[in-house]
Amino acid sequence: MSKVTVAAKIQKTFATPVEGRCLCGAVRFEIDFPARWAWHDHSNATRRAHGSAYATYVGSWRRRFRVIKGQAELTRFQDEATGTARSFCSRCGTPIIYERARSAHMVNIPRALFENRTGREPRYHIAIEELQDWTYMGDSLIPLKGFPGVVWERPTRNKRSKRGGRL
C-alpha cells in the first residue's frame, strides 16, 4: 500500500462540537469534543466569582472554543495581580470563561454550562487546601419530610452516658 493511500485513509477528522450557554441564552458557545481536561477549583477567587463552594471547569484549547452567539454580550474582568481574566454574560451574570496568563493557549469553562457530555470527568482538585469546612462532601442525606425534592443531613444525636447524663 502506498503512502498516499494510507494518508488518504487517515484524513484528519473534525471533532463533534459540544454546545454550552449562559443562563439567559444571550451567549452561546461550543468546544470540540472531547474537552482537554476537567477539574474542581476550590480557590478563594473561584468561590467568590461563582458564589459557591467550588466550581467545576472543563478546559479546552483556545482554538477549539468558539462563541457562536452573543460575543458583544461578554464582559471581561482582568485581575492584574494574578494574571487571570474572567468573562461573563453582561445580561445575566453567568461566568463563561476563565483564562490564566500562564496558559494563554487554553480557556476554562464552567462545566454546568454544557447540557451534554464534554468527554472528560473532573478528576482533579485545585486549591484543595482552600476547601471550606461548610462544603458538602457527600455525607449521607435523607428526605426532609413534607418537602418533596429536599434532602438534609440529619444532625448526630448526643449519646447519654450510663448514668443518664450527657457526655
Structure notes:
The chain is mainly β and about 170 residues long. It is about 10% helix and about 35% strand. The protein contains two helices and twelve strands, in the order αβββαβββββββββ. A four-stranded mixed sheet has the order 9-4-3-10. Strands 1-2-5 form a three-stranded antiparallel sheet, with no helix packed on it. About 5% of the residues have low confidence.
Chart the SSEs and their pairings.
Layout: H1 3-9, E1 17-21, E2 28-32, E3 37-41, H2 44-50, E4 55-61, E5 65-69, E6 74-79, E7 84-89, E8 95-100, E9 106-110, E10 124-126, E11 142-143, E12 151-152
Parallel strand pairs: 3-10
Antiparallel strand pairs: 1-2, 2-5, 3-4, 4-9, 6-7, 7-8, 11-12
β-sheet strand percentage = 25-35%
Helix content: under 10%
Morphology call? globular
Count, helices: 2
Spatial sequence of strands, sheet with the most strands? 9-4-3-10
